[in-house]
Amino acid sequence: MKIAVISCIHGNYEALNAVLSDIDDHKVEQIYCLGDLVGYGPHPNAVVEMVRSLNIPTVQGCWDEDIIEGLNACECSYPSILAEQRGKLAHTWTDQEIHPETREFLAQLPMTLRVDNLAFVHGSPNNQHEYLLPEIDAFTAMERVLGTGADVLFCGHTHVPYVRDLSDGLVKVQVKRSGVSETATQIHVAPLKRIINAGSVGEPRHGRPNATYVIYDPESAEVKLREVEYDYPKTCAAIIDKGLPAIFAWRLARGLEYAERAEDPTHICER
Amino acid sequence: MYWAIAAGIEGNLAAYEAFLKDLRQSRLDIEALYLLGDIVGPRKDSIKVIDRIQNPRPGEPEPQVCQGWWEDQCLILHALGRTGEPTQLFDRYGKAMAKTLWDAVPRAAIEWIRNLDFGFSELDCLLIHGTSMGVDEALTPETPVMTILDRLQRMGVNNLFCGRSGQAFDYNLVQGSMQTQVTMLDRPPSAQTVTLPAKRLIGVGNIGHALVRPAMCCTTPAIILLNSKP
Fold this sequence. Notes:
A: Purple Acid Phosphatase, chain A, domain 2; globular; B: alpha/beta; 7 helices; disordered C terminus
């Protein structure tokens, strides 16, 4: 039974439609969504309605959370003052644009989903805002997967898809306790774990404008990183027509990598 | 040169005096004294402990103090905490404890508590009550090794001293390795072996509980002394 995992649609209805068509072509039995249905893009209501009508199990993304809870991140979430200004503009626009039922849907989304040995989160199991980048320390990555109790952790948030296998983990520990003369030695072995980042349907940042998502076969453990062409100029035009910052259209047309990423990817704002 | 590191006086002045006496008798050259939180507690001597810390006697090191769980509860009771309700206090000790703690730590001490550091970072060491995740997180030798590693790596240090558990131990991560392979859209799979540099978690014990059992008060299980250049 193959599954498809999509993430970070960001109000891009054209991209979502193209990805759903591609999924149809691959005989997938179940679709999961890792959140960020809204934000940046021009069609947040249509995207939410599509995901809802298809009964796609979905976790809450950082944009979904911010729309429900209110924008409460400090400047640490943005790489520059300009980026912060753009982010706040997009938040205000989205907040005004979405319908009450869209807000209700976003509010009831869970932080994590667990199906058999698979876990689904937006950023990391700790927080929707934490980036699990492919180069993050291997032991840190392992801790994030172990924290879910699953063998495979699906995440998004970075907008760049990847598969990371973690294997043959071994840690040797020596423990000395007060009042005990002997030093105890422990050997900890970490089992094979995997992180699969689903990329981004509606705001890709891998260097091309094409939508990305993944197909996973739990039986064979085969992963396909899918890249789907779609009519991105149409979305770009809608971004400008709706009065969203034009730079969102500019970077969408380029699939600009490293856009709008905070300097410290593991930092979690607690303001 | 040594650092003296302890935690958990919990308003027990006699225990703190015993600790200081122990320190004097050790005849070690103490460069710094760190008290990793839980200075106060639901004991009437809490204010005396604060006074004693603020006014070290000639020849005694000036303690550097960070916030602990009990200080956090005091701040919450005075509407200065990170959360609105003292739910942890209620859950662990019942609602009556709120009044006991309120009476034990007068308002005059709250400003001092409020200005305490969350922790200290010095010479590749983090000295903290709980962890960087919060004052209530207790690390022990039973904590999953990956969680301990994560807490060390979050703060970018190789030595973590903490007092929350009340246990005294020295937990050395002496060796570690892992295979990792990353596959991306435009790149062939890249594999590497990651090795772990040596890291250390030290539980500094608890001073205040020692006098509950007087036989323990003059021993030093609550004190970890470390060469200041690990």
